[in-house]
TrEMBL record:
Residues 1-31 form the signal peptide. Keywords: Signal. It comes from the Bacteria. This is Transporter.
């Protein structure tokens, strides 16, 4: 076998350059960014049929005040506190169509108003997600995803023995969203992923309301309730420090029309009222860490910093993302 020492120096240098380039290419291939996903943004359809994912979120919600109708902040006492687990289940039906569902279990308490009688299962959203445009980073084309689904009224909302047990709306709610996702390469070989989305929700029916309910009724009431239209618009950024660590932030605006409730009180008088509309702005900074392409964790907090007719809240949370 002929040694490289017998080749001219230029040839040796040429082979060394080839080896270095091959090593760099291999390193670049291995350095593909791993993601968990930001705290608030919806996630697009799975890339391949048969792909599945589970992502449980654990959240503690601590109100610190409220915004009145003019957006002026006030202290709030007593404060409604809540601990919840929201788990996302997702499965790729085809390479462009996925189905997802969320199970939500919560436990609430408030001074002078007691505690939930136990962990409460909330309303149950199920969505189909269709990726109708595939991303093309070289041409700066984002992926586009359409969400369409229904929130099923599985949570307790009426005939409540305890006000803290109310976790549902009693109505089937249609919801849809348009969401885009794009990734950009920044100087220093850092990835930046951008998501932009817009949700819209509308109740499909009025719920039968009896006695104490999430619509603010009391013992003896008989009538109907219907949640108002609502939605959310936002964007998220995820900056790759390295392949495993990322900084993430969401900025979103929530809005909701007031719920309508009508019927007869215990005294027999008829009432028909619609609640005031509400809205808020939230920012959710977080850290992401990924052990590999299939396992990751994110931790941060949602901070509600502006709005009207809504609580000022801090909601620390973390989630574990699993893909298989």
């Amino acid at each position: 076998m002929t040694s490289l020492l017998h080749y001219p120096k230029k040839s040796v240098l040429f082979y060394c350059l080839i080896i270095c380039c091959a090593s760099l290419n291999a390193t670049a291939a291995r350095a593909q960014q791993w993601y968990t996903g930001s705290l608030v943004s919806p996630a697009p359809a799975k890339d391949h049929a048969g792909d599945a994912g589970i992502e449980p979120y654990f959240t503690y919600s601590q109100p610190i005040g409220y915004y009145d109708a003019h957006g002026i902040s006030h202290p709030q006492h007593p404060r409604q506190q809540l601990f919840s687990n929201s788990t996302m289940w997702k499965y790729g039906i085809t390479d462009a169509l996925s189905i997802q569902a969320h199970t939500v279990i919560s436990y609430g308490w408030k001074k002078d108003a007691g505690h939930s009688t136990g962990p409460k299962f909330g309303d149950f959203p199920v969505d189909l997600i269709w990726r109708f445009v595939n991303a093309n980073p070289k041409r700066y084309i984002p992926s586009l995803n359409l969400f369409a689904g229904v929130v099923f009224p599985t949570g307790d909302y009426s005939s409540l023995g305890h006000g803290q047990d109310g976790v549902g709306a009693g109505s089937y709610v249609f919801r849809t969203a348009l969401m885009s996702q794009s990734t950009y390469k920044l100087p220093g070989n850092h990835n930046l992923r951008l998501r932009v989305w817009n949700w819209f929700r509308r109740a499909l029916n009025a719920a039968d309301v009896r006695d104490t309910s999430t619509y603010g009724t009391t013992t003896g009431f008989r009538g109907k309730g219907r949640p108002g239209m609502s939605g959310q618009t936002g964007f998220s950024l995820e900056y790759g420090i390295n392949r495993q660590w990322l900084l993430a932030i969401d900025v979103a605006r929530d809005w909701a029309n007031g719920s309508r409730v009508w019927g007869h009180t215990k005294a027999g008088s008829y009432t028909d009222r619609t609640g005031a509309p509400s809205g808020d702005w939230q920012v959710a900074p977080a850290f992401e860490y990924n052990w590999n392409a299939n396992w990751g964790i994110i931790a941060g907090a949602s901070l509600y910093y502006a709005g009207h007719n809504t609580s000022i809240k801090i909601a620390p949370q973390f989630a574990i993302n699993t893909v298989f």
